Amino acid sequence: MQTGSPGDPGQKTASFTRSDAPMDLGSLDKQWILHPFTPIAEWETGTPMIIAGGEGARIFDDRGNAYLDGTSSLWVNLLGHRHPAIDRAIREQLEKIAHTTFLGLTHEGGIRLAEDLARLAPGNLKRVFYSDNGSTSVEIALKLAFLLRRKTHPGARRFFSLERAYHGDTLGAVGIGGIDRFHAPFYPLSQESLKAPAPDCFSCPLGLSRDRCSIDCADVAVRTVREHAPELAAVILEPRLQAAGGMIVWPEGYLTRIAQAAREEEIPLILDEVATGFGRTGALFACQLEKVVPDFLCAGKGLTGGYLPLAITLFSEETYRRLREDPGIFYHGHSYTANPLAVAAARATLGTLEEGCHISAIGGKRTVFEVLERNLANLPFVGNIRSIGLVFALDVFADGSRKIPASRETMTGIERKAQSLGLIVRPLTNTLYLIPPLSIGVDDLTLMGDILAESLREFGKAGSPNPVR
Ligand SMILES: Cc1ncc(COP(=O)(O)O)c(C=O)c1O
User: Fold this and answer.
1) Where are the domains of the chain?
2) Which of 222, 233, 241, 394 has the smallest count of CB within 10 Å of its CB?
3) Average of pLDDT values for 204-228?
């Protein structure tokens, strides 16, 4: 709490005059900013990379160095930086209006984008509720599912999700999250969901052999859903790929099994496609890989091509009708709901995604991953190589035969080495991954793979003596 009155001599008066002190941006950053998911003391002692520009699959720092964007700027950039069509769409919208509220008003961009989404979305998911980030798109789905479910099951107020799930950082999303490192400190503030193990067949939490894991893991999840059905307000999953949880690629059929159980128990199914949506897994939405249509589909990130914050929660006309009857109004909204600039970026992104056949081109680009996998085969400390669509991941081990993960120092060393060779990566504990923009060319994707392999080789010299089994 601040004390003192404006006249208090101890109180410094706020000033809107900008300092013209020499600009060491790194020091100024450290003086004024707290960064997300960034170790504070390490940040204070390091030299921050200051991003000054981007073009296609590359970003540039303020010293003129170029880096391949191996994380698509944290899974948001879809078609490359400074895409002409998206740039143009935003400029054109700027000539009209930058923002207006969506509460009780509407605008053409928001309407047209809803029309586009209705055409592209799986099954009957023709209605949209706009928000401005992935976490809120999830919160909205949780609330809407609860409103529907309470009509028949007034006591149903728990959610089912998976261990190692990540659905965002708001408190509702924390409750259904399952990454202890991120979520456990905040569990006392949120309602912890009912959980089943994630289907990670490489290090199966149930200790099952690889071929049994997919079947038995699904059995455990299905049994949990069925046993607790009356108390469940919704089942929420990240279909086919648990990204933040360690790039866990699900075995085929796992999603279908849980979706079927939820359907039979009449529990709303929410699929969180914030990370997987808009082509990353090889289909526009990952649920389409198994022809599963959820009751609610959440998406964000790539929707605007990684330009501006916008998210969507999709649902059916039937759901809309039931909400119209009761409660008749949805008390939820955000200041920047359906921001017109973001909506313009999204329409340009979806148009370009369709016209450019970026999703159908993924199959051809995946040959680069096959070559990369062969390249990495002789590194004994690398294992669990997996991929889906244009996502490639591997794990690094201190001792491969005992599956002891590489230390944080090792992973930071690999990250820095890759950076020095011109590639941005961001490990998730001992997992390294590539999620390039879908528009990346085969040459740049090959270069990404080569740099990744080279960075691993360098650090492998001090790596695991025992190969991964
Ligand atoms: C599956 C999933 N859901 C939700 C979110 C949260 O999205 P946002 O960071 O836009 O709030 C993320 C972010 O990485 C995600 O991967």
Assistant:
1) 34-81+359-460, 86-355
2) 222
3) 85
In a 13 Å sphere around the CA of 244, the CA atoms on its Cβ side amount to: 24
The ligand 1 site (C-beta within 6 Å) comprises 133-135, 138, 166-168, 238, 243-244, 272, 274-275, 300
User: Could you tell me which of 78, 26, 40 has the C-alpha nearest to residue 56?
Assistant: 78
Residue 369: is its pLDDT beyond 70? Answer: yes
The kind and range of the H/E element at 298 are: strand 296-299
Instruction: Fill in the DSSP letter of residue 61.
Output: E
In whole angstroms, give the CA distance from residue 54 to residue 83. 10
- Please give the number of the atom of ligand 1 that sits closest to the Cα of 74: 14
- CA dist 198 and 221 (Å) reads 9
- CA–centroid distance, 443 to ligand 1, in Å, is 30
Q: How many angstroms separate the alpha carbon of residue 207 from the centre of ligand 1?
A: 29
DSSP state of 81: B
CA angle 246/249/255 to nearest 5° reads 120
Cα–Cα distance between 118 and 125 in angstroms, integer?
7
Convert the pLDDT of each residue in 432-454 to its tens digit: 999 999 999 999 999 999 999 99
pLDDT grade for 5, boundaries at 50, 70 and 90: very low
Assigned CATH for 86-355: 3.40.640.10
Closest approach atom of ligand 1 to CA 244 = 16
What number does the ligand 1 atom closest to the CA of 133 have? 10
- Let me know: does 390 contact 435? Beta carbons within 8 Å: yes
Q: Which residues contact 273 (CB under 8 A, 6 or more apart)?
A: 238, 239, 285, 286, 287, 297, 298, 299
Q: Regarding the domain with residue range 34-81+359-460, which homologous superfamily does it belong to in the CATH classification?
A: Aspartate Aminotransferase, domain 1 (3.90.1150.10)
Q: How close is the Cα of 375 to the center of ligand 1, in Å?
A: 32
pLDDT digits (tens, 9 = 90+) for 242-262: 999 999 999 999 999 999 999
Dig out the tokens for 75 from the structure. Answer: 């899974």
The C-alpha atoms of residue 290 and residue 169 are separated, in whole angstroms, by 28
CA of 168 to the centre of ligand 1 (A): 5
Please give the angle made by the CA atoms of 188, 194 and 196, to the nearest 5 degrees.
125
Q: Whose CA is nearest to atom 8 of ligand 1?
A: 134
Write out the two tokens for 456: 């691993």
Element (H, E) at 171: helix 171-176
**Of 175, 162, 136, residue with least CA distance to 239:** 162
Name the pTM for this structure: 0.95
